[in-house]
Amino acid sequence: MNVFIAGGTSGIGYALARHYLEKGDVVGICGRNPGKVIENSFENLKIFQADVCDLHSVNAALQSFLAGDRNLDLFINCAGSYAEDVAGKISYEEAEEMLSTNILGTANCFEAARKAMKGQKKGNIAVIASVSGIMDYENSSLYTKTKRSVIQMADAYRRALKPFRISVTTIAPGYVDTEKLRQLNHNNLDKKPFLTDVQTAVVIISAAIENKEKLVIFPTKMKWMMKSLSILPSFLLNIIMYRKARWMKDDRP
């Protein structure tokens, strides 16, 4: 199987790359900084520099990977950007980065994968969203709104690509214990409920893709907690989520 992973140079993306490589698949990964991959001991791993915010850049990396009439069996978009703005200020640069990466980047990855797979009349596309994206209320964070957009975008592509036998799987995880999450929280994850380790996340994600599931939310406890919160009146949800954000920031320097 030929697998291409955008945002595959670190975190969940690189863990997924290792998973498919260990199965004997050919894997291409791309990111803005390929230097994050310190050691490449896999013969079937191809590394490319690409920015998901630039469609030409993603297409160029993908076409290089597919050189020699190689089919694209699976495209996974793991690229994402996060900056907290529920209980504090957010800079224009942080907002622009989230909007560009999470929304434009998602659209670019879908387009690159769609073009590569349409002629094949088969293929699987997966995108990493967030469990927070299942919630819809007025004062949700910009991050939550961008991830909700990812879920909605995936729904649209799923319907559009179904006649071409191309499946779309949306993954909405809770907190996953990655290096990035630890950096954002000064290595203190005490206030991250239902934390999932990376390898467990890989098992869940890869199974969902293999089974061509539409939407997978994990862990289960986080899924039901968020679904329960989402049925509350908007004004009450605004208060609860704001206080949660303040509580999570209380012990930060």
From TrEMBL:
SUPFAM superfamilies: NAD(P)-binding Rossmann-fold domains. Keywords: Membrane, NADP, Oxidoreductase, Transmembrane, Transmembrane helix. CDD domains: SDR_c. The keyword Transmembrane helix applies. Pfam families: adh_short. The chain crosses the membrane at residues 224-242. It comes from the Bacteria. The keyword Transmembrane applies. Coiled coil: none annotated. Belongs to the short-chain dehydrogenases/reductases (SDR) family. This is SDR family NAD(P)-dependent oxidoreductase. It comes from Chryseobacterium endalhagicum.
